[in-house]
Amino acid sequence: MFHFGKKPADDQLYAPITGEVVKLETVSDPVFAQKMMGEGFGVNPDVSVGTIVSPVAGEVTLVQGHAVGLKRADGLEVLIHLGIDTVSLKGAPFEMLTKVGKVVKGGDPLVNVDWAQIKAAGLDNVVLVLITNTNDALANLDVNYGANQSGAVIGKATAK
Q1: DSSP states along 53-79
Q2: How far apart are CA 70 and CA 54, in angstroms?
Q3: Predicted local distance difference test score (pLDDT) of residue 4
Q4: Which residues, including other chains, have CB under 8 Å from residue 72's CB and lie 6 or more apart?
Q5: Residue 50 reports pLDDT greater than 60
Q6: Is the overall model pTM greater than 0.85, yes or no?
Q7: Are strands 12-14 and 67-71 parallel, antiparallel or unpaired?
Q8: Phi and psi for 29 in degrees, rounded to 5?
């Protein structure tokens, strides 16, 4: 009941890249903006920074070209979606630095991105961080919007 000696789960959110953290409702894709994939936030990236870091502490559950999935110890499931419609690029701009099953801390490197390829394809480069099991597992999401540095604590996601 008291879990003496057991380290509490990290419920903090970390900026996945240097840039402007924005409300999900402001992103260009209505599926994300209307929170059909869950609560979260976006980051308009500083394209001089090419590495995406983990926005949460957890286990990597999905590595798929334009997206990385993570599961926190408290059960929250987090999806990092790199750009809008970038699935059409078939993984070309993305170099995965992690693999399924790896346990990461917030701020650990996950993916290198070649932003020039995304720009050349005329696609939106917003980085999305979504809690895909929002309805079942999320109690509260608190995000500090505005300019942030990669790996900085930008808020907290509390599980039910």
Answers
A1: E-SSSEEEEEEETTEEEEE-TTS-EEE
A2: 9
A3: 45
A4: 9, 10, 11, 56, 57, 58, 78, 157, 159
A5: yes
A6: yes
A7: unpaired
A8: -90, 120
